[in-house]
Amino acid sequence: MSQLTTNYLTPTGREEAWRFTPLKKLSGIHDLEVPVSDRISLSAKSDLPKGVTLSTSSSSDHPPAYVASDIVTNRVRKEVKNVTVLAIENNLELAEPIFLKRKCGPTPEVSRSIIQVGINSRATVILENNGVGKLGEEIEILLSAGSSLNFISLQEWDLSSVYVAQHHAIIGKDAQFNSYVVSIGGSTIRMSPTVEYTGTGASAEMYGVYFATDEQHLEHRIHVNHSVPNTKSRVNYKGALAGKGAHTVWIGDVYINKGAEGTDTYELNRNLLLTDGARADSVPNLEIETGEIVGAGHASTTGRFDDEQLFYLQSRGIPAEMARKLVIRGFFAEIINKLKNEDIEERLMARIELELSRVGE
Asked: Domain segments of the chain: what residues?
């Protein structure tokens, strides 16, 4: 399971899973003929609290807990020799978040990490991606029974960077997983936040914010697999685009298996086009194999900037540029405010406003 086989071939772009992705911009991360290096790129920004460890061990000691079909994920598993493991003990409630940072280089690299949350433990983990990098990554998140994890992934890369990643959560009985994905920087980002359940009463809430400007490609492919009874999921991603060649892709796949009675799920994607020349692709998918569910639905909207809202603000004395910023802040506020960290919230909005000011330069 951890090795590439002849079934995995370098994508050509004609495959359904890759038809939206600009392969030429991936710096060879997806190309089996292009060499990549593996390195331990994750580290803690400060001392870890008691009961939490960050260690490195051989990948052979941590076989993958799920089967992956993605070519980059399987390549990561083949190439990476050592895995970074963040382990949180049982019955631990952490008041302060754990901040993880990484160091990448300008050449293509791969990395694999595991986050383990003990029984009845509660924690917030914030992963900050910034600087220059060309990285293919897998993060495996294991939630034990009764645990709760807020996992915040911030893509604030330099505008030349490439990031291809799968973040896969396996949620135990009565556990709660909250995922927050923010993608602002980077030349090309392709992320796959995926979820599966192993126990009843488990729940996942998956939120995302992305902002693409000139020639940026930001792609998010969500997959939620309801395979056991009485589980819940909510997905809500919002994106804005401005500038020539700005392109975002959102794929939302929810699968309710035959034995998953009592499932409650809903997914939503909204996109705001701020200028001409931008393109947003949004594909929600819902597959149901049982009629014994609480509820299931999906929605997707893509619309242009609301000139009436802008006119309303200007008519009350607010300058046009400030009014525009207020509209964008309001659009993203629903999700960014859920981070519950004022420093990060303001930093993200400042980055969005900076990127907006660069449009057309």
From this structure: 16-305
